[in-house]
Amino acid sequence: PGALSSDFTANISWGDGSVSSGTISGSGPFTISGSHSYGEGGSYAMYVTVNDRGGSALTMFLTPNIADYRLSATGVTAKASKNFSGTVAKLTDTDPTATSAEYLVTIAWGDGTSSSGTVGGKKSPFTIQGNHTYGSSGNYKVTVTVQDTGGATATATSALTVH
Fold this sequence. Notes:
Layout: E1 8-13, E2 19-25, E3 31-33, E4 42-43, E5 46-52, E6 57-62, E7 65-66, E8 71-75, E9 77-80, E10 83-93, E11 103-108, E12 114-120, E13 126-133, E14 138-148, E15 153-162
Parallel strand pairs: 9-15
Antiparallel strand pairs: 1-2, 1-5, 2-3, 4-7, 5-6, 8-10, 10-13, 11-12, 11-14, 12-13, 14-15
């Protein structure tokens, strides 16, 4: 009952391979705090180990769900030939370390078919590219769906006028 926060040390294993010291404060009950930036959202197996000066230890297990960075996609309006190859949307990711390799893109071409697309650019905002051959001229509503490796998704609707 007479323990002080200085009688304890804490180590936090963040679940992504990183470990750091925690800060213990209060006068009982004590609070353990720490700060960490995750590279991607998801569920992590986190362990906090507290040691006291007398040699006792306690390990606590937590499973924090880390929200992924926000994605947003914006459609484009374009004129195209029946053999379309080009930009179908723009993608913005609030993750400052995001690269174009982190995304899975599906393009529904508005004619009953869909295919994968690619993300271009070195950093956000990115361009989303696709290739498609239309069977006839007309106006097509193209739906672009993007998912990143952390699970965040974004959808954009583009308008293609095929001549």
